[in-house]
Amino acid sequence: MERYSPFIITGGPGAGKTTLLDALAAHHCVTFSEVPRMLIEEQSKQEDGILPWNQLAAFAELCFIEMMRQKHKASSSESLSFLDRAIPDICAYLNFGNEQVPSEVLEQAKTGYQSIVFTCEPNIETYVQDEVRPYPFEEALQIHRQLIKQYQSLGYRCITVPFSHLDQRVDFVLTESYAHLGLMA
Question: Mean pLDDT across the stretch 37-59?
């Protein structure tokens, strides 16, 4: 298979993105874990950890460094690759928090990814609030809307992944990905 830019799976907190990516990995796709969640878990263990709810700009900088690494690694894969969030998410979260988006972040958000983005919307039936996801459900929906608005403003076409059985979600994402690339699934 040729090398292709990675696909992004995004959406509000608690929308089932990680579960979907785990299932895509079982279908021989290359997947990359959600950077913000990993960093929140790491930074929470440190006495002066950088967390998005008290140091959003500094946290975004940490995310940017790791997401650049993921983008580069995903772009060198010869299999379909999927990222659980990506640099455009940083722009959306900074805008949501009324913070300035650095020009380098904005420029990197526009390139190196497939032009379609898969979005997963939080669902009240499955939403779980925890230490890493402290948002109430309504705020998770607001974040979801901000993410879609941000991606569209950067020129991406957002495709909503239907809320259905996991196997159907995987089939949907794979079918759409292969069709976008002009390949047979």
Answer: 93
